[in-house]
Amino acid sequence: MSDAMTPIERAHCVARDQADPLGHFRERFHRPCGVIYLDGNSLGMMPEAVPSRIEAVLMREWAEGLIRSWDDAGWWDLPLRVGAKIAPLIGAREGEVVATDSTSVNLFKLLAAGLALRPGRRVILTDPGNFPTDLYIAEGMTRLIPGCELRSVPLEEIASALDQSVAVVALGHVDYRSAEILDMPGITRAAHAAGALALWDLSHSAGAIAVDLAAAGVDLAVGCGYKYLNGGPGAPAYLYVRRAHQGKIRSPIAGWWGHAEPFAFASSYVAAPGIARMLCGTQPILSLAALEAALEMWREVDFALLDEKRTALGELFIALVERFCPDLALASPRDPARRGSHVSFRHPKGRAILQALRAQGVIADFRTPDLLRFGIAPLYVGYADLFDAAERLSRTLPRV
Ligand SMILES: Cc1ncc(COP(=O)(O)O)c(C=O)c1O
Question: CB 3.0-4.6 Å disulfide test: which of 67, 161, 163, 320 passes with 390?
Fold first, then answer.
């Protein structure tokens, strides 16, 4: 019998935590006392491995090593090294990912580069529900590139809006509000059939749900380092360029870190071979080091188990909230195969409810106009956490 049909007891949730094959990963995170953290889709928790790594970068590599550390401590290679650690999480192959800049800046670079890869085509196709920065960057492209047009249509019309004028289809893999998983393989196939490129924002999927860029034939992708990858506030983002495009793609910000021979200090730009050409200027070594330390644990993560746990946690939380808080309306797909790792509910007093819930030690976030968004990061959220969160939510509701 499913959780939805049986009354769920806390003891049952505790037993599930005890039997959880991924449960030991919880100990790898700093978990503040008295806090149930359901906001890892905004800012991931801090892995315990990060402070010692940062201290080593500060005290050994910077303070002692000084400029020698660019080579001796491998600082120069850090963006590619971190990219290589992200690659298995998104189904990318060696040399297809680099960690650098913010997601917004990477979107800018890949949209401009994608348009250039499809000469004669000038349309960026997206949906109005895409994350705002993705829309703003695309809008900015239309002001920058003569003839560039942003075509924004509801998801169900994407396929019919694809024509010979579309250069790039740019979408978010998991909807940041509802957690709906978009059909990445199907939309990518349709984009290719129309001669367009597919660019996906993986910010709400990488580290939370299975992503296979190679299998889906995705051309370009970006994603955040500070959400499910736990790289810390403002962590560098990453970008992916399918190997087949790497010979031709050019970054619109041709900085010296993307030069084939940066230390030749030549007066003219020659793009580096491979993904390194998408780098621009000097990289934030402290932030990259934090992200690299945070990524170490992923080598041990069984992705099938992660997906199983993510699904089970989502199912449990929906069942609990619907039982304890019938006034909240589910705003995420009920089908777990179509739902990412957060679960959203609607309530007209959503903001006030979440503020009051925070006072009870449960941290989640609000999205306008009425969305309560609960991020369930499977590496550190447990079953009993969700029971306690739902129970506190039910106690909070009548007081708001
Ligand atoms: C889907 C998505 N894309 C991009 C961003 C933000 O990008 P940046 O790190 O450049 O602020 C977010 C932030 O929440 C996001 O949810």
Answer: 320
